[in-house]
Amino acid sequence: MTQQGFKKFRRRAQVQPEVQEQVRPEPDEAVLENVPTGLQSEPAEILPTTLPSPWERLARISFDPDRGGRDGAPLASAVRTDPAGRAFDLLRTRLLQTLKARGWNRVAVTAPTGGCGATFCAVNLALSLARVPSSRTILMDLNFRSPGVGPAMGLAAAGDMASFLSGTRPVEEALVRPLDTLAVGLNATPDLNAAEILHDSRSAAVLDHMVADLDPETVVFDLPPMLEYDDAAAFLPQVDGVLVISDGTQTTAAHLAACERILNGNAPLLGVVLNRGRATADIGPVA
Fold it and tell me: Taking the chain, what is the end-to-end CA distance rounded to the nearest angstrom?
């Protein structure tokens, strides 16, 4: 390299840093070049600190507990001072004492034969349980032969328990809350495959998941008559105990003995409730 060429190279090396410094972007500008224009001035999104619990996500529906059902049957909530209303409150207290003492929470309500008032008793027992402050009660209409919880409560029974128990319908779509402390699983369509549905292991898994998510103190299952179908017998492994509703005008001692034989070794008999007694409603021992 000649002396003149070396001088030109040295002058170029001295000027280059200054040129680079002039064209180098500011740090903030460099960052902003990589941020979409529409997001540069937006504040960061603030997520909620807590999400609603599974219980709170159940849809609330309009319900008046002081009004009778569409089937004409009165609700005990409207006649709490009458013997029938007091009987359900007494049944509630005895039942809760028994369940808490044993760590149980699943109760089936059934009858020896049809027409004994099992659905009427299941509904009014659930309403009485729901009056306990800060409690959670679930009432499930699993009488696939003749669904009646919706009409008994004066509600539109738009539910589909078969889809729910098969796991194809989430709990948020299957249950509704007529009261803050009461959730109800309604059923609109009879199903002749009731026993097979209740035998299915998927039903047991769905109910276990429901109880774990919603965390109720008590779950009441309205079931078909024990001596007319095998539905109730199929469902016994899923409950902690059974209330049998007898009718003072038609239930016999032979009917009750037959129910006890079915329950023997499968589920405890919590008590026998006498419906349509001659003088007043009577409640057998809850043990």
Answer: 111
Q: Domain spanning 60-283: which superfamily?
A: P-loop containing nucleotide triphosphate hydrolases (3.40.50.300)
Q: pTM, whole model, 2 decimals?
A: 0.79
**Nearest CA-CA partner of 90 in 115, 121, 120:** 121
Q: What is the spatial distance between Cα 63 and Cα 67, in angstroms, rounded to a whole number?
A: 9
Domain range summary for the chain, segments of one domain joined by +: 60-283
Query: Which contiguous run of DSSP H or E holds residue 54?
Result: none
Q: How far apart are CA 286 and CA 127, in angstroms?
A: 18
Q: Please, is 91 exposed, middle or buried when counting C-beta atoms within 10 Å of its C-beta (0-12, 13-18, 19+)?
A: buried
DSSP assignment, residue 168? Answer: S
Angstrom distance (rounded) from CA 270 to CA 287: 5
Half-sphere exposure of 99 (CA within 13 A, CB side): 22
Q: What angle do CA 179, 147, 221 make, to 5 degrees?
A: 60
Where helices occur in the chain by DSSP H, the ranges are 3-23, 27-33, 83-102, 118-130, 149-153, 161-166, 171-174, 194-199, 201-214, 231-235, 253-263
CA dist 70 and 109 (Å) reads: 21
From the list 88, 60, 77, the residue with the least C-alpha distance to 179 is 60
pLDDT in tens, 40-82: 555 556 666 678 899 999 999 998 877 766 555 667 766 666 7
